Amino acid sequence: MPKDGGIGSSTKRREDVRFLSGTGRYTDDINLHGQLYAHFVRSDVAHGKINGINADAAMAMPGVVRVFTAKDFEGVGGVPCGWQITSIDGSPMQEPKHPVLAEGKVRHVGDPIAVVVAESLGQARDAADALEIDIEMLPAVMDMKEAIKDGAPKVHDDLSSNLCYDWGFVEDNKDAVAKAIADADHVTTLELVNNRLVANPMEPRVAVGDYDMANDEHTLYTTSQNPHVIRLLMGAFVLGIPEHKLRVVAPDVGGGFGAKIFHYAEEAFCTFAAKQLRRPVKWTSSRSEAFMSDAHGRDHVTKIELAMDKDNNFTAIRTETYANMGAYLSTFAPSVPTWLHGTLMAGNYKTPLIYVNVKAVFTNTVPVDAYRGAGRPEATFQLERVIDKAARERGVSPIELRRQNFITEFPYATPVAVEYDTGDYHATMDRVLEMADHAGFEARAEQSKKNGKLRGFGIAHYIEACGIAPSNLVGQLGARAGLYESATVRVNATGSISVMTGSHSHGQGHETSFAQVVSEMIGIDATQVDIVHGDTSKTPMGMGTYGSRSIAVGGSAMVRATEKIIAKAKKIAAHLMEASEGDIELKDGQFTVAGTDKSVAWGDVTLAAYVPHNYPLEDIEPGLEETAFYDPANFTYPSGGYACEVEVDPDTGKVDVLSFSAADDFGNVINPMIVEGQVHGGVAQGFGQAMMENCAYDADGQLISASYMDYAMPRATDLPMFKVDHSCQTPCTHNPLGVKGCGEAGAIGSPPAFVNAVIDALHRGGHKVEHINMPLTPDRVWTAIQNS
Amino acid sequence: MEMTGSRTIEAPRDAVWDALLDPEVLKQCVPGCTEMSGNADEGFEATVVQKVGPVKATFKGAVTLDDKVRPESLTISGEGKGGAAGFAKGGADVTLREEGDATVLDYRVEAKVGGKLAQLGSRIIDSFASKMADQFFNSFKEAVEGPSAPEGEADDAAAPVEAQKEKKGWFGRKKAAT
């Protein structure tokens, strides 16, 4: 095992030893005695009425134990939504029931209708073919703008329309924004689509339900980013199991990207069926199933207007967005286009007036929810694209237009309700231009021209809000949960430490970086610190990992708990050395009395805590274990400048990304290697969105990009070597580590940089193309050139 | 997906019309059809085995003939369920017009697939449907005319082997019988 260092060292990831040697334990590796296999029978039409299900033939098939349909779930709750949005008119969003198995109607391709449970997976699948399901096709609701017109077919018959909510933010600014736009010297308008994506974690979703009849205890093993959230949602809202009788375990998880935050019907099903059948029930998603049952991401259609005065100072921004919710409300779906999107519309710029309108719409598609960045990529993309267009219309440099409008004084309260605590946008802009050798670009562009190619330079500057979130604030905004994080630091008698964190690691490397923090604080070797996560029976109630919150919120909880440990250990050390508590110092794992040569080692103190023969029992309890819950005072605001250089072949429309540079300000950095890896992954996903990936439906609601033959995932050969830098650091002012979070930045900041580069290349070639919707495939780029 | 095409069939229009309503002819002409029962008025039950890209499936479903205007036009529609493979639906608007002694058959075909077929086969579904339509109408022409039709066209070469087994076309046999 590599030796760990403290804060700031690029310690190799300890978890990689098991991942790379094939000894990781993923949910699918869990097989319980007597386990049965569930196969979900899913709708192959987008919208239809279920006239009947005949399971007689399927029940008679070999190995079949039971066939479940919606009837078995009468009296069971629906899959809940965790965030309520209020419309402009004050009414709450329309919230349809989301049954575990489809009741009466199917509402998207992939909607589960029945489940066959059998002794083997093969038997379950064979029997599924024998199910007779009579579905009458109904017209599919696909286009968002059509869907909310009067008389459009309805996804949910019991709702008044397909409009989930109509949200205005900040509504009080609406008229002032309209006036500023009317009075502006220039208004740049851009209409664009933020393409629907599929998260595609390497490990598909898996659920294993188990029931212990003797103690009436349920256990769910699942591929989750937040086991406590699943326990709360499933226990309280779906199945009615009290928390002390329900254990949720999310062991090694092979990537989540948001799609594994949410509570899914399959989890509830396996837990429910295990009790019904008194045997463990396992479901493993196939890749095809993942495409039509994992929550999708993005899918916004937006119009943005940017108003400027005669000197090109931004005076107002107005946006109108249609956000696709899909057929049901996934766990956090309503929050993504609103509070995670509208609040970021200021970007890095001091625009005094902003108004955001979002209409969330139900369609006959897979539910849409948070995907790496969640709302912030959508905000960044439209803003950074419209600024580039504005620069072109005004004949100024897109870099200078950004610089001129940068926020430079902190803290800065935006007109969209958030307060940036710190940042230095000129520094990251300077750094990225240097990394990308912007000064040498024109010479390279000349060279490309000689080769018959069009070279373009794209710049984007982003801000995001992460480290989510202050519970009292999100409560006011409609969250049905708190967003604190927890940690228990358990010091063992011999001095080793187990940290039970409410954060969850599914690729982020917490077992390494979290151990670096605790070992640094105490001054012991990091190998003495173990990070335990992902099991509700082991860790305190925690909210899990998403929104780049683990180190900023979970890490802060761990710091607070470790501070309590150190404070108590000092009391014990003071007693052992017969000194005053105030004189005790802890350094490199040794407690010393200031100004003397007296010392006791960390291990002496921890042993005394558990063998309290010589111990201040009248003042403090034995043992050394502390828990802290940390609720952040504000979001954190990472920011950065991204630059991309592309070469476009004007004859074919093919785009080659030649270089990509990222200068991020993440505040303090715990493990630079892990941070770099997070940025690489984020930028690769941003590249995927910008250049290759697209989740496509046909007009009938058939999902036509549901395999890797049609859904193009980026591969290493598609990408250049990324230049990544995080030397610009303005530490967060309100958490103990001064950290901001780095997990989503790459996916937030990079798409506009890619697109800006391609549009720049086309203009340099004389093609007046203002916008191309992502992904910028050769076909789309070539078509845009032909139409220009 | 919509395709159009036409075939010139060396047979009188009434004969072509009758052939279109004959289950034996349909069975022979629907590519991959292994079973066909029923009649033109009440519809047919059909079993079709087809491979679309990576998905091979047995489709069971119904074929109906609607909007019949003898001997000018009708609509053939079919819908088949392929179990785990999903479903396929298709329809053809067929019109017949006389051109000398021959009959010109014009068609407009629409095809839809759902489920796994759409998920895995959408890229190739257009070319697949186009091929299916070609095969159907070539076989039909073949079935009506017989393989040794006097003015054989290049299309005949593409006709499936099964259709060529018959020595005489449907029209020829009917004539011989009367």
Automatic annotation (TrEMBL), chain A:
The keyword Oxidoreductase applies. The keyword Ligase does not apply. Coiled coil: none annotated. It comes from the Bacteria. Keywords: Molybdenum, Oxidoreductase. One of its GO terms (molecular function) is iron ion binding. Residues 21-139 form the Aldehyde oxidase/xanthine dehydrogenase a/b hammerhead domain. This is Carbon-monoxide dehydrogenase large subunit. It comes from Palleronia salina.
From TrEMBL, chain B:
InterPro entries: CO_DH_gsu, START-like_dom_sf. It holds the Pfam family COXG. Residues 144-178 are annotated as: Disordered. PANTHER family: BLL0334 PROTEIN. This is Carbon monoxide dehydrogenase subunit G. It comes from Palleronia salina.
